[in-house]
Amino acid sequence: MKKYNHIISKSITVIFITVMLFSCSNNTQQVRDFLATKNLPIGIAKNAYHVYKDSGRITSKLITPLLNDFSNRKEHPYNEFPKGIKIINFDNNGLDSITITGNYALSYSKTLVSEIKGNVVVLNHTDHSKLETEKLLWDQNTHYFFSEKAFTLTTPKDTIYGIGFECKEDLSKHLAKKTTGKLETTEK
Question: Which of 6, 17, 19, 137 has its CA 20 to 30 A from that of 53?
């Protein structure tokens, strides 16, 4: 009798587990929507190292200790880098040409605009210029940086201080606003 009760108990457990497994819905969209309503990321990556390629050539690398993927947002999908970011862009010869670092970043996938905050540093390794600011907006479509925050732009010949600027992502052709500093110019 004891053996018979044990077999019935195991059978009921197996049937219960089987019913539960088949009753679960595996609707990915429902899960995405639930996470979006709770303001939770759809994915989290720790110590992420992402390599971007174009036609088999490495164009850039992204390094971050933490990546939160909010691509489940209908209106404005984005990625969040709450513990900082480092982006290394490479020139056509595969040499490190531009490095961008910051303490926090958001990257919006629909608009391809990124916002980088906190100790933002952009280094151009080719012409040895450096941009420092607290907040930088980067339009990846136009390859353009802009900010309304205080900045320091250092080149081999000049150091420019100001509030507000725009420039190409290689720090060339810059438009600096409210500037101070010693500038070397050539008249034509």
Answer: 137
